[in-house]
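In the design runs reported in the main text, the only information available to the sequence generator was the tokenized backbone. The following block is the verbatim input for one such run; it is reproduced so that readers can re-run the procedure and compare outputs position by position.
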């Protein structure tokens, strides 16, 4: 992973200590940043990461639990991983915005989704493409992006595809016989290893503000069918693949979320990240990424998975 130099005087707040947020917090702390995180529940004992500062933030409680202003004193950089919520279109901005505007912020990153581009029929899409999200979660994400960009804060939007990593890989489901090998002609998906999300965030955090693009895709070099990635995971395990299921034959039996996932087909470009910003992917494809995931999981790294928010 790229290791940019970040001034120790910078203080990072991660709103939402989920899978990606907690991994970023630990990496940033290792690089000398003072890091604080929010969680919906109190963090104690082994879950607390004693070197990190923890505060409760729960927009769904009544009343909402919000950190005191003094708890955020000195924060210079913020990452928001909390998704749009029911009842509050953008809970982090609505509840924390007044506090954030009082801080000497240099950067605020918001984790969004490549789903805002909608279905491109498998063609390539970059940051210049107009968003065309389907109704539902992707539409809510686009509304959240727009709200943050209109906030007056130094916002940078990161659009992410499916995130995988230790504890979030195909290996456990293959072993448990729960994987499905689904074939849909021409269908591809983009994906990214969690450590490249973390690496990209740290890379952008270290850049001068004038070099940070407002919107940035964070994805690997290898959009491909899910059957291809599952086949490689089975190869690494020496495990037999499940029988092929044809999408047309099982579509009607799928849940709404699964059908939504399979209804969009696009290749997401990372050229702005790699060519313009000079970020070097640690895992250019799922092949390098899956090998690293398996090694970390076998070494016990699956414990890195957090019970917090999705990202």
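Verbatim output:
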């Amino acid at each position: 992973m790229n290791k940019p130099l970040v001034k120790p005087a910078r203080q990072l707040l991660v709103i939402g200590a989920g899978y990606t947020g907690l991994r970023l917090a630990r990496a940033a702390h290792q690089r000398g940043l003072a890091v604080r995180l929010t969680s919906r529940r109190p963090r104690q004992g082994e879950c607390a990461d004693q070197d990190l500062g923890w505060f409760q933030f729960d927009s769904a409680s009544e009343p909402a639990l919000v950190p005191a202003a003094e708890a955020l004193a000195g924060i210079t950089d913020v990452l928001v991983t909390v998704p749009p919520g029911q009842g509050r279109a953008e809970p982090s901005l609505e509840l924390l915005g007044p506090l954030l505007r009082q801080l000497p912020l240099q950067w605020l990153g918001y984790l969004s989704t490549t789903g805002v581009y909608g279905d491109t029929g498998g063609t390539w899409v970059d940051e210049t493409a107009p968003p065309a999200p389907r109704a539902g979660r992707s539409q809510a994400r686009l509304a959240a992006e727009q709200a943050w960009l209109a906030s007056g804060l130094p916002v940078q939007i990161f659009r992410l595809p499916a995130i995988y990593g230790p504890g979030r890989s195909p290996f456990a489901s293959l072993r448990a016989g729960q994987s499905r090998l689904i074939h849909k002609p021409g269908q591809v998906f983009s994906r990214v290893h969690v450590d490249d999300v973390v690496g990209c965030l740290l890379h952008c955090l270290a850049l001068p503000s004038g070099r940070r693009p407002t919107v940035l895709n964070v994805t690997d070099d290898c959009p491909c069918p899910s059957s291809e990635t599952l086949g490689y995971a089975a190869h690494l395990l020496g495990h037999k693949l499940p029988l092929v299921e044809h999408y047309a034959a099982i579509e009607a039996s799928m849940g709404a979320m699964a059908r939504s996932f399979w209804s969009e087909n696009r290749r997401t470009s990372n050229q702005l990240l790699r060519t313009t910003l000079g970020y070097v992917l640690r895992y250019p494809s799922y092949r390098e990424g899956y090998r690293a995931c398996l090694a970390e999981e076998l070494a016990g790294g699956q414990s890195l998975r957090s019970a917090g928010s999705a990202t």
